[in-house]
Amino acid sequence: MLKMQKNTLRHVGWLIGIVMVLGLLMVVPLSGVATAADDKSAAKDQQATTSSAVGTPQAHSADAAIQVGTIVQLAGDKGSDKVKPATSKELGSMYGVVIDERKLSITITSADQKNALFVAATGTYPVLVSSQNGMVNVGDYVTMSSVDGIGMLAEPEQKIVFGRAVSGFDGKNNVIGNVSLKTTNGKDADKAAIGMISVVIDIRKNPNEKSTKADLPSFLQRLGEAIAEKPVGPLRIYLSIGITGISIIAAIVILYGGVHSSLISIGRNPLSRKSIFRGLFEIILTSFIILIIGLFAVYLLLKL
Fold this sequence. Notes:
Elements: H1 2-53, E1 58-60, E2 71-74, E3 83-85, E4 94-99, E5 117-120, E6 123-130, E7 141-144, E8 151-153, E9 160-165, E10 177-182, E11 188-205, H2 218-228, H3 234-268, H4 273-303
Antiparallel strand pairs: 1-5, 2-3, 2-4, 4-5, 6-11, 7-8, 7-9, 9-11, 10-11
Helix pairs in contact: 1-3, 1-4, 3-4
């Protein structure tokens, strides 16, 4: 009887090992295909972004004349070449800055373009800024101010920046105008000076943005971002940990119960080993499927 139980345990061990290997062989190629597809999609998006942003400034139209140095965003329907002054309420829509077409070696415009102007989406160009957030020093990040089309010093509260200052503006020298700022109630507040500085256009997430996330172990944050390939909130990470733990526990409980009952059944009725092993295989497969479903649910929770 002891020898038979040892053989049975050995067979069960081999069976579990085979099922785990087959499962890994199924999961790894799928994850590889998903990663390859994501990489390919990301490469296409990057290529499209690069091709549209890099190069000579493009001709656009506007409903009204827009001053050189004004930060603009796309307006109108999709595919339209119309632009308008960017607003602080739509930081993610910042597109580029209006430049002086006289400084371009070649300018090509269409007769259909109303108030034709040229917009640069990359490179270093003069940009209108205000002293709303204080003086802008060389190396500071610039974002939209409360005045449409005019930038200012980016504070950690602003999520997106337009670029980085190459020259500075203290609000006292090289002032080209002043503007009255409005409060949230629409009343006049302090006045801000307006000047023009050179800015390297680099529309991106503010590197100095203050994190509003709850405290989370760094290794968990890195693991979640590595799986999702994007920033992930702590709620999703904690939910993922919970789902993973429940899946593992459920799989272990089902597997242990199946193996334990199978060994008892074989000990009581050795002649039914074949049917018992068949049932044991189904139990192992079920526990493994539960584990895979749980891990896949975690992947979707972090990815989507």
